[in-house]
């Protein structure tokens, strides 16, 4: 056999082996593709079966299955903190509450317990409109009015700026090829409550965002050629431990009121708090049911106070003396005067009166001015006591024993 015949024979064998291997790989790929397709069809059919309207569970979580919230009326002590929170629910224009105190004193529990007491509001408000709604009103188009409960939004410390302010809707950009805006937490908290736990540990860039929105009441987002502005007026509630760091003065001044929380020292009260907490942990539903009547009574009281707030008056001489106290204490700006007037009116409405008294001002003025005083490192007296002393001096008021 000549060399050429041998070479041709080997090439035929190699070619045949190559073709068989290629055919085998092609068949394997085809079988794999068929298997994958069958798997996708099974998953798709299963998904369609699960998500069918007849068999799909409702997306609305029943109230009983939600995480139980400790009742507001069951909280023992901490009257100053509870009063500040209630006054802000009655008049949101007070500007929020800053709660500072020792750890384990129920700051976060008290704030989150407000959920049950929040009243309903109309979702369409001519004062707080976006540009789209404003244009419809100018065209005299009818807009539906609905009622919804005031929402509370938690701002986590690790939140990104895009999550807080809003960002581009990536899904719409990829599927529809259009630039769309996806609202953030500030849009969700509009006309509601924005709660920041451990606010003194918040990153500086998020503090700047909160300052801008709290000052203007609007949030403007500039992202990838999109410019969107929407209303962002909310009740800003923050809590923290002063041992973990101080708050920036610019942000501290944005809080309407300041509440100081201390550890309960009375042994009987401490035992009561422990027992009530143990009852709640053992059976939250029964515990909440035992406080239902008190919760409903307080909720009705808040609703009546919100309704009668506009009719509450402050005598002119009391207004003058409030401003005199702020001036004597060298309070910067006029926020102290405005917040004290608003808080005194809200307290009078909560107590069912139509005129503010000196006792109302005495109750709220330390919380309105304490955090606005200039810090003196050599001063040993508490700033709240300084406010009370100046109030008694200007008003000629004798402190109750």
TrEMBL record:
> What SUPFAM superfamilies does this protein map onto?
P-loop containing nucleoside triphosphate hydrolases
Q: Which SMART domains is this protein grouped with?
A: AAA
Sample GO molecular function, one term: magnesium chelatase activity
Claim: Membrane is one of the keywords in the record:
no
Report the transmembrane regions from the record. none
Means of activity regulation: Redox regulation; active in reducing conditions, inactive in oxidizing conditions.
> Where, per UniProt, does this protein localize?
Plastid, Chloroplast
* Subunit relationships: The magnesium chelatase complex is a heterotrimer consisting of subunits CHLI, CHLD, AND CHLH. The magnesium chelatase complex is a heterotrimer consisting of subunits CHLI, CHLD and CHLH.
Q: What does this protein do?
A: Involved in chlorophyll biosynthesis. Catalyzes the insertion of magnesium ion into protoporphyrin IX to yield Mg-protoporphyrin IX.
Q: What PANTHER family does the annotation carry? A: MAGNESIUM-CHELATASE SUBUNIT CHLI, MAGNESIUM-CHELATASE SUBUNIT CHLI-2, CHLOROPLASTIC
Protein name per its UniProtKB record: Mg-protoporphyrin IX chelatase
Ranked from the top, the taxonomy reads: Eukaryota, Viridiplantae, Streptophyta, Embryophyta, Tracheophyta
């Amino acid at each position: 056999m000549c060399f050429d015949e041998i070479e041709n024979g080997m090439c035929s064998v190699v070619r045949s082996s190559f073709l068989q291997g290629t055919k085998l790989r092609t068949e394997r790929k085809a079988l794999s593709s068929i298997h994958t397709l069958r798997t996708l069809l099974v998953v798709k059919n299963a998904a369609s079966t699960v998500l069918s309207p007849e068999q799909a569970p409702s997306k609305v979580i029943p109230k009983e299955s939600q995480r139980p919230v400790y009742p507001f009326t069951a909280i023992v002590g901490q009257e100053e903190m509870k009063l500040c929170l209630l006054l802000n629910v009655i008049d949101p224009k007070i500007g929020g509450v800053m709660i500072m105190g020792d750890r384990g004193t129920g700051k976060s529990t008290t704030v989150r317990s407000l959920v049950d007491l929040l009243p309903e509001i109309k979702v369409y408000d001519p004062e707080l409109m976006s540009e789209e709604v404003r244009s419809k009103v100018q065209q005299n188009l009818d807009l539906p009015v609905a009622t919804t409960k005031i929402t509370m939004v938690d701002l986590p410390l690790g939140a990104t700026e895009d999550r807080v302010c809003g960002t581009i809707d990536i899904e719409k950009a990829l599927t529809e090829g259009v630039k769309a805006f996806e609202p953030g937490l500030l849009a969700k908290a509009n006309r509601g409550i924005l709660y920041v736990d451990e606010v003194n540990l918040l990153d500086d860039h998020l503090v700047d965002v909160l300052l801008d929105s709290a000052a203007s009441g609007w949030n403007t987002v500039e992202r990838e050629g999109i410019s969107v502005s929407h209303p962002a007026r909310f009740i800003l509630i923050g809590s923290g431990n002063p041992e973990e760091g101080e708050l920036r003065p610019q942000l501290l001044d944005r809080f309407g009121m300041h509440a100081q929380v201390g550890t309960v020292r009375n042994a009987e009260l401490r035992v009561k708090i422990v027992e009530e907490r143990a009852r709640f942990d053992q059976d939250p539903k029964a515990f909440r049911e035992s406080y239902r009547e008190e919760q409903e009574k307080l909720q009705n009281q808040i609703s009546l106070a919100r309704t009668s707030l506009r009719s509450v008056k402050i005598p002119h001489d009391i207004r003058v003396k409030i401003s005199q106290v702020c001036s004597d204490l060298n309070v910067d700006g006029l926020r102290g005067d405005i917040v004290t007037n608003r808080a005194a009116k809200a307290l009078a409405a909560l107590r069912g009166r139509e005129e503010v008294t000196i006792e109302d001002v005495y109750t709220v003025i330390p919380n309105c001015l304490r955090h606005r005083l200039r810090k003196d490192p050599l001063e040993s007296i508490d700033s709240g006591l300084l406010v009370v002393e100046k109030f008694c001096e200007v008003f000629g008021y004798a402190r109750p024993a």
